[in-house]
Write a structure and sequence with these properties.
4 strands; 22% strand; alpha+beta; Trna Endonuclease, Chain: A, domain 1; single chain
Length: 97
């Protein structure tokens, strides 16, 4: 994970906790590669997934495939690569909660 990706992921964790009252848990799934970096648990039993990237970085093929499977099951999956996109994500969920 690059330094820039770590910064985006850290910012996401802090904003989810402070502004949404949720948790951004590190998501590791032994035996299944390509899962998103974070599972976001929000008040009211809301769940979504976030794959963080360095600015401009794209999903690997396996990541895109797994994110597609998760989306097909009805869960929201976000690709976030900047602090500005974290802010957009938070504003979207503030409106939902």
């Amino acid at each position: 994970m690059s330094t820039l990706e770590k910064e985006v992921e850290g910012y996401l964790r802090r904003q989810v906790k402070m502004r949404l009252g949720g948790m951004a848990l590190k998501f590791v799934s032994p035996g299944l590669n390509g899962v998103p970096d974070r599972i976001i648990l929000l008040p009211g039993a809301q769940i979504c997934f976030v794959e963080t990237k360095a600015p401009g970085e794209r999903l690997r093929k396996l990541q895109a495939y797994v994110c597609g499977l998760i989306t097909q099951m009805g869960f929201a999956v976000y690709r976030i690569d900047t602090k500005a996109k974290v802010d957009e994500f938070v504003k979207e969920w503030e409106a939902r909660l």
